[in-house]
Amino acid sequence: MSDSSWTRTSPTTGRSPATAPGLLHSLSPLLLEWLPQQRWFAGKGRPITGFDLVSATELLPMGGRLGTPGLLHLLLDVEQTGRRADCYQLLLGTRTLLPPALAPAAVGQATGGPLDGLTIYDGLYDPRLTAVLLERLRAPGRTGRLRFLTEPSATVPAGLAPRLSTAEQSNTSVIYGDEYILKVFRRVSPGANPDLELSLALARDGSRRVAAPAAWFEALELPEPAGAPDGIGAEPATLGVLQRYLPGSADGWELALRAMDDGTEFTADARALGAATAEVHAALARALPTGSLDRRRIQLIAATMAQRLDTAAAEVPELRPYRTRLRAAFHDLSELGGTGARVAAQRIHGDLHLGQALRTADHDWLLIDFEGEPSRPLSERRLPAPPVQDVAGMLRSFDYAARHRDPAAPTAGAWAERHRDAFCTGYAATSGTDPRDQPVLIRAYETDKAVYEVLYEARHRPAWLPIPMSAIDRLASNPPPRRITP
Ligand SMILES: Nc1ncnc2c1ncn2[C@@H]1O[C@H](COP(=O)(O)OP(=O)(O)O)[C@@H](O)[C@H]1O
Ligand SMILES: O=P(O)(O)O[C@H]1O[C@H](CO)[C@@H](O[C@H]2O[C@H](CO)[C@@H](O)[C@H](O)[C@H]2O)[C@H](O)[C@H]1O
């Protein structure tokens, strides 16, 4: 590969003139090694073949006095196996000397260009830099192509102490003084990120089921890379959201596992979570556009699900013997479309599972992370969808919790059934619509989710593959969700 492929830049980048020349040239060799090691890097296993600098903004001058860090904001298109893959957001710190506490954040030492001799590191690890970011978020306005906005009803105090979140996550979050949490999106697409769009709509509707956004930032006027289906474009791209932090909260996954391990019941919580989910759905339907799916759209969804099954089966051989029987669920969905039935659709969470529900210190359930399924294009994630998709996600999650220690444990099936049932009962009592009365829809969405999970586990956690495989086995023999309680 020629050196020039590493230094190619868009002619219309939003970088500040002081940082542009040679910037990518000196960073490329470091990023080539560092990026694939990051948890949030989505293109693992495929070689990086080029970088394209979309924008570069100095938030704090680089190469200042000895010991003074600089902060450089980058949007970087990564090309893999010769095609543009994703755009990533990097907040790079620069120092002449890296203190030992920041060693785990090191990216490497730059040679040549404007960064020559400086140590480059992930700036989100550095409280001095994340304190600067909070100050920038508190003051609405523009810096280069970055725009910082605040929610008028929120007052974020100055000087809150930052710390990097240690949660396992797809993005990177910084907690400020136990009052606010800033999620910095790593993979960036044009348009409002549904995590901001939905949380804001819910908070403005008065919902207490969401951590209210107080400030956010976005990228403006970015060039559309040639031939990129989901590249950075004319619409502002959400880059980060500062939301209320819920100290002392625990997520539904931890709580369900604890209950499972202790042999205690979690059904009252499951019921309350079903009710909370129904409340969120009602608020989303009030606040954002709704619609109904016609025959063509239902059949398209069914065909897409069948396609995803084929893709997963091509990669995971364990799935192949079940393919024909699983397809029946998608066939039935398609037939449902053929009957002329219209299915109500609205904005939904899109990737709901127990880890996306936080139980506060006051035993109230809130939902977080409205980003949708990260592997799907943003445009698709923002379409109205049947709320039963979220219900199916949560039902899958109770099954995961039950089978987490031993997928074949004799008690697992009954535990899962009781909690799935309690969730549906809570949902039905609040919404007036019982998901168990939509067996074709719920079976199709549950099957689609289980297929997604098989692929997810095969790629990320192969030891967990038996968990969704046990569901595949069950779904292939077609029992619709059982109603235990009325
Ligand atoms: N508002 C909040 N209050 C307290 N903890 C939170 C809040 N939002 C997120 N978290 C914690 O951070 C973790 C990751 O958040 P999430 O939004 O799921 O990030 P990602 O989309 O990067 O995976 C959550 O599992 C939870 O532990
Ligand atoms: O955390 P994300 O929103 O990025 O979601 C991805 O990772 C999840 C695992 O962390 C994965 O969820 C699956 O495992 C969970 C237990 O760890 C379980 O509760 C979920 O039901 C199951 O789907 C999720 O699918 C994936 O998109």
Features:
7-stranded antiparallel β-sheet; 486 residues; 5-stranded antiparallel β-sheet; Aminoglycoside 3'-phosphotransferase, Chain: A, domain 2; nucleotide-binding; 17 strands; alpha+beta; 13 helices; binds adenosine-5'-diphosphate; binds ligand LMANGFYV
Produce the secondary structure layout.
Blueprint: H1 4-7, H2 23-34, E1 48-60, E2 70-80, E3 83-95, E4 106-109, E5 119-122, H3 127-138, E6 141-143, E7 146-150, E8 162-164, E9 172-176, E10 180-184, H4 194-204, E11 213-219, E12 237-244, E13 250-251, H5 252-262, H6 267-287, E14 290-293, H7 295-315, H8 323-338, E15 343-346, E16 357-359, E17 365-367, H9 378-381, H10 388-403, H11 412-431, H12 439-460, H13 466-476
Helix pairs in contact: 5-10, 6-11, 7-8, 7-12, 8-12, 10-11, 10-12, 12-13
The protein binds adenosine-5'-diphosphate and the ligand O=P(O)(O)O[C@H]1O[C@H](CO)[C@@H](O[C@H]2O[C@H](CO)[C@@H](O)[C@H](O)[C@H]2O)[C@H](O)[C@H]1O.
Region (Disordered): 1-21
Enzyme class: transferase
Subunit structure: Monomer.
